[in-house]
Amino acid sequence: MAVNKTAFLVGALAGGSVAVAAFAGAGMKLPATWNPAAHGGSLIQASTAPVFAPPPGAPQSFADIFEHVSPAVVSIHVTSKIDISALRRQIPGFENFPFEIVPKGGDEDRPLPKQQSSGSGFFISSDGYIVTNNHVVDGAEDIKVVTKDGTELTATVVGRDEGTDLAVLKVTGHDFPFVSFETAVRPRVGDWVVAVGNPFDLNGTATAGIVSAYNRDIGQNFVDYIQIDAPINKGNSGGPTFDVYGRVIGVNAEIYSPSGGSVGIGFAIPADVAESVTQQLIAKGKITRGYIGATIESLSGDLADSWGLSGRKGAQVTDVLPGGPAQKAGLAPGDVVIAVNGVPVKSNVEMTREVAKAQAGDIIHLDVFRDGKERTVDVRSGLRPPEQQLAQNGGQGPDDDQGGGGGAPPHPAAGPPVLGMQFEPLNADTRSQFNIPDTVKGGAVVASVKGTSDAADKGVQKGDVIVQAGDREIASAGDLAAAVADWKKAGRASIPLAVRRNGQMLGFVPIKIDG
């Protein structure tokens, strides 16, 4: 499932939690003709209605699990500076906010006000290493850890990883109760889940549910989440997810909620990912990943058809960073990557994960389709920039080689429309009119889109810049018309157009060729 990321994914801050998942014993499915006596259960006649004893596989109580694991779980209280600019963005009518946030007097040297937030974590060693979420401690100036018996400890950050939203803390001391990751086995979908922790600062709260699903994609490149329905709320972030033997099978990270409270859908980072990342953070203080400087998208059915690759899966290259590893190796927009170092990839996420396994300087072998033929492109890996930096730069990383410039020389505007669109040349006038940055070096500017066209249906807009059609770079409507003619002659029903908007590459859009 790909969760609608524009909706209600919430990092569960402001309390603390542990989740416990059970997978021992028989499943919970009851036949329509289930007889309790035949299954070792008993029918208890109450004064108002019959009550069945739990069937095999259902625990009588989670109390023993709670007593076993809860001493290893901690609440994490973070003090950080308030981002005033963020508040201005988030609070409507900020100027009329009912109390003073910024100290009076206009003294820029005065300290910013502080904010408090809380999360969860758990000991993974007797000498004080604690696992939590990165978003719990991001920007922290002071971190306090409170154990089950109320002991307060000062913690320091050992390392953080934005890519998986994991962090490791350290407190001074010894003989701390701790729990371990379980990577060899995992509970089944439908097995029990129990959450214990500090939601909304209600320390020691316990809730129960089941494992709902595996391999949930909620927009993180390096994690396929476990979905659980044990009620977790703000403050559950960083808490462990256990099986009935007290083994950690995941780390709570997100909830899906329109209200900010639990609606029964939570997500945990699987133990194999968490263990690998936390061990690297303890050893090195950071995570390093391979990087080639390319923007990619999954090859959808329509897009595959437009390239003549019907039925194929892979990752479509939509853009390359000027001067980056991919461009230096000859990878180009329109290439479809089908394998990385011999491992087949079926989506952009799978390709990103395989590339990330490399270290800076390693040679990454990419099997690609180009011009209907398969070939290998060898790319020397760079070092993946921080996730926040990638997000700010449209997924490509530092734009250190893009520079300025006036773009492509003017071309005559085409008269008749092409694919239901009218075009203007990319020049100073159209840059100003459509706010096209200098980083866009060439292409044909969309001046209008016919409302009934396939281009309109696919979301192409006035002011977009078409920079490539199929395997041909575009500098004018005439170039596009020629590319469409070649594609039509080859018997293609649609042609992939590379579209830039506001300077950012949107990707290839398959547009039907009329007639």
Overview of the molecule:
By secondary structure, the protein is of the alpha+beta class. A seven-stranded mixed β-barrel has the order 2-11-12-13-16-15-14. The radius of gyration is 28 Å and the shape is elongated. The two termini are 37 Å apart.
What is the spatial order of strands in the main beta sheet? 2-11-12-13-16-15-14
Percent helix, as a range, is: 10-25%
Task: Report the principal-axis shape.
Answer: elongated
What is the alpha-carbon Rg in Å? 28 Å
Mean pLDDT: 78
- The number of distinct helices, counting runs of at least 4 residues, comes to 11
Secondary structural class: alpha+beta
Identify low-pLDDT runs: 1-8, 13-47, 86-107, 395-414
Largest sheet: 7 strands, mixed, barrel
- Relative strand content: 25-35%
Question: In brief, what are we looking at here?
Answer:
The chain is 16% helix and 34% strand. It contains 11 helices and 30 strands.
How are the SSEs placed, and which strands pair?
Elements (H helix, E strand, L loop, with lengths): L8 E3 L5 E5 L21 E3 L4 E3 L10 H7 L3 E9 L2 H7 L23 E10 L5 E5 H4 L2 E7 L5 E10 L4 E6 L20 E6 L7 E12 L8 E4 L11 E3 L5 E9 L9 E5 H14 L5 E2 L2 E5 L2 H6 L8 E6 L4 H5 L6 E5 L2 E2 L3 H9 L6 E8 L2 E8 L1 E2 L3 H6 L28 E5 L2 H7 L9 E6 L4 H4 L7 E5 L2 E2 L3 H13 L4 E8 L2 E9 L3
Parallel strand pairs: 2-14
Antiparallel strand pairs: 1-15, 2-11, 3-4, 5-6, 5-8, 6-7, 7-10, 8-9, 9-10, 11-12, 12-13, 13-16, 14-15, 15-16, 17-24, 18-19, 19-20, 20-21, 20-22, 22-23, 25-26, 26-27, 27-28, 27-29, 29-30
